[in-house]
UniProtKB/TrEMBL annotation:
Membrane topology: Multi-pass membrane protein
Coiled-coil annotated spans: none
Taxonomic lineage from the root: Bacteria, Pseudomonadati, Pseudomonadota, Betaproteobacteria, Burkholderiales
Any Pfam family matching the protein: Competence
Protein name per UniProt: Competence protein ComEC
Amino acid sequence: MARAMAVVQPPEARVRQAPSGLGLWLWVVACLGWLLGVAWQWQSVRLAPAAWFHGGVALGVVGLLAGVWLEWRAPLRWRRLVLLPVFALAAALLAWGSTGWRASQVLAQRWPSHLNGVDVWAVLKLEGLPQPLPPAGTEGRALRWRLDAAVLRWEGVQPEPGWRLPEHLTLYADWPAFETPRAGQAWRMRLRLHAPDGLSNPGVNSGTRSAFGRGVRAVGQLRPGADSLQPAGDGDAPSWQDRIDRWRQGVREAILQRVPSAREAGVLTGLAVGDQAAIASGDWDVLRRTGVAHAVSISGAHVAMLGSLCAALTRRLWSRSSRLCHWLPAPTAALWVAVLGAAAYALASGGGVPAQRTVWTMALMSALRLLGGAWPWPLVWLSCATLVTVWDPFALMQPGFWLSFVAVAVLMSAGERSLEVAIAGNPAQSASLRGVRGPWRWLRDEAMALWRTQRLVSLALMPLSLVCFQQVSLVSVVANLLAVPIFGALITPLALAGTVFPPAWDVAAACTGLAFQGLQWLSDLPLAVWAAPSPPMWVAIVAVLASFALALPGPWRWRSLAWPFLLPLLCLPEPWRALPQPASGQFAAVAMDVGQGTAVLVRTAQHSLLFDTGASLPAGGDMGVRVVLPVLQALGVRRLDALLISHQDNDHVGGALSVVRAVPVAALRSSLPEDHALLARQPDRLPSGTWTLPHQPCAAGQAWTWDGVRFEVLHPTQADLQNRQRLPTNALSCVLRVQADGGQSLLLTGDIEAPQEQALLAREGAARLRSTVLVVPHHGSRTSSTPAFLAAVQAQAAVIQAGRRNRYGHPSPPVVARYAALGVHVDATPACGAWLWQSDGSWGAGRCWRAQTRRLWDEASTNDGP
């Protein structure tokens, strides 16, 4: 019995080491070639013909087979010279071709453009976790949901020649209050769909990229009406994935029902079933500012922890049976149970990239241990990265992939305890060491190990955080010393235990509330976050490599040579920025892509002005958070010298409160009434005691000069403001003219209409209105842009800020034709994305951000073919 319970170790003669010499390098270059091939494909602007992908796959396979043959038969003296490039190129071609083929299968699906705005019928099967959203109406009789669905069949819809209809959709639906949508259900629905699209701005993730990664080729709405939603008999037998998703949804509902606090319930839901959408945006801000967002996501550490618990429990129980131990040694059983338990948790949590990485690593290291293998960490690391991208090539484009693998590489290279020891070695090792060293010494050593781990990981991930999110937490090391033990060793196990013993959620909720109090205090510190503008790609790559070199073990005098390569990322020179700071006497403008709304940033040499802030959204959030703040951060704007709100319509002021809460604002100008929420709430919503926000109504005749650039308010008049009760809100729109030292000028018009344009002509005269660039009044409405006004402005370029397929029909075709007849170059944000212009003429009539950053997935938003 004692022998059966003993740990079985492979004899030394049977130990299989990693491929040595040439074999090791061949494996390394093959993995690197694969990763480079995948990245090469995702950097493409347009998809190559399908024959190229087939050729790439064929050449890759032939190259790998030829390399294997040469490795066996070729003379040793020239193997290194030939085999390394052959394996690298063959793996890169195989990855490029296979990734391109998979992308072509998604892009071959297309929603017919002539069906935009037309009701269609389809039978759909719901997939994944339905996400509840705030009710669209005020009566609360219907709950709004975000749903992912697979198309079982279309009814009466024919694809365009040479294309397939979409196979996966994302829907927003007002669901009956008595019904809850669940994964695997089949419904016949009346829909209104369009191709996926997204806003395109500096520092803002592309919505089309996310849809493309999920295979979604059409999005839209469930149409209102009693007959728009009908049960269908198709898909009654749920798949194994549907059963998992239904279990996840049941756990989420049980947590929300038991835990009254939305914050604690959201965190527990995220940790138990991976539903990160349950965590409120304000709570995410706290987690990001403190650098502990990974602690409330199902990360690799959580998956590995569950695997370790499964291994320890299996080993203890398995060892009690001599029959089982003779059939299969307890350590071997513990290995595979750990892998299976981790895989089950990864599936139950949605299978994110960090979870995939952990499962592949555990499986590979378990297989090596059973075979008596001992691979160096770079080989394990590269192999797991390759396996993840073989399974899902699009994972390479997700920030989580890089953050996860860089963190693990740092820990592996620094000699931290590997996953093999954690899940496959002696689970009682920690307890035995605690008994030998004593509890206090053991606790001190564990605390020092945690401090060293967090210091290394924070240093390595700092450049990546700046590259991906343009900010890094300066309190992350301290915050993680609090969060990692509490969330990892206490709250996460309790969240999982609550699925079988619900009272555990009560304890977990109490611990979560206490932890958030400490995190909130750290988040409110003045220097909790360091922000930096978005860097060029080559600066990002150099900085990431430099931080990795700093985190590696070795003599400090050599590692310190990497510090200078981090400086450009921390203090990015102006010429390398997306929008360099203008010279004295000049200005730059960014008309942001905020959908149906207005937000324009004007920068001079030392000052910044924001004209409007976009809309607040019925589904929650606003364009201030989603677009304006990320753009300001990506462009390196840390404060606003003026915020000018043209008028009180939602699409112009909806994001203002979020902006003033997040960015120091020196002054506010607007035509808002005194009882407007932005003015009424400003004292208690601003950062505590650091800034004041004096308000001044904008009125014709106001003017000031910044860095040689003149700003003039042309509308409304004082009489208009005094008679605001008798005027529509659009009539009170502030009109601002910005003129550079050399005469180049920009006219910002808000939502003025024909009467205001006529009044401006009569009051100011044509000479005062003449401008180089015009932000088109009222989003291109037919009630604005009168011929007399356009003749007076004589603009060389115009930009229209409007939402794609907006319900108002902006911009009006006759208005667009009117600009074209005058020879005015017109850019509209739906096709252009954010529009950037410099008054010194270096960028001509302006640049479109969408054209500068176009990738394969952006074909979804333009309906261009592959």
